[in-house]
Write a structure and sequence with these properties.
Helices cover 47% and strands 26% of the residues. By secondary structure, the chain is α+β, with helices and mostly antiparallel strands.
Amino acid sequence: MKKGHAVHINLALLKYFKGLIIYFRRSSLIELDTRGLLCPLPVLKLRKLIKNINQKEKIKLITDDPAAIVDVPHFCNEQSYRILESHKENSWDVFIIEL
């Protein structure tokens, strides 16, 4: 096997695996647990996290703040983020948000 050929294959594999890493990163679900925090802290923590991540990321927000069922959808609507799912889990609310 020629040296140049092996390097070419290795570069192709590197590009392939780099693409896989990017794919998995894009499809990741970042969990933000704000249980124990009251209004407006869950939304403020969500806003701070959003500033530090890429577009098209998904966030799983967990909260036990009673005001969150109004505050989170309002914030997402104002910022043009999508709530893909919201449900009750045990005694807290869970929101899956796509940027």
